[in-house]
Amino acid sequence: MFSHVCVGTNDFPRAEAFYAALFEVLGHPLRFRDPGNAAAAWQPRDAERPLFFLTKPFDGLPASPGNGPMTAFLAPSRAAVDRCHMAALASGGTCEGPPGLRSHYHPHYYGAYFRDPDGNKLCVCCHRDE
Question: What is the pTM of this model?
Answer without folding.
Answer: 0.91
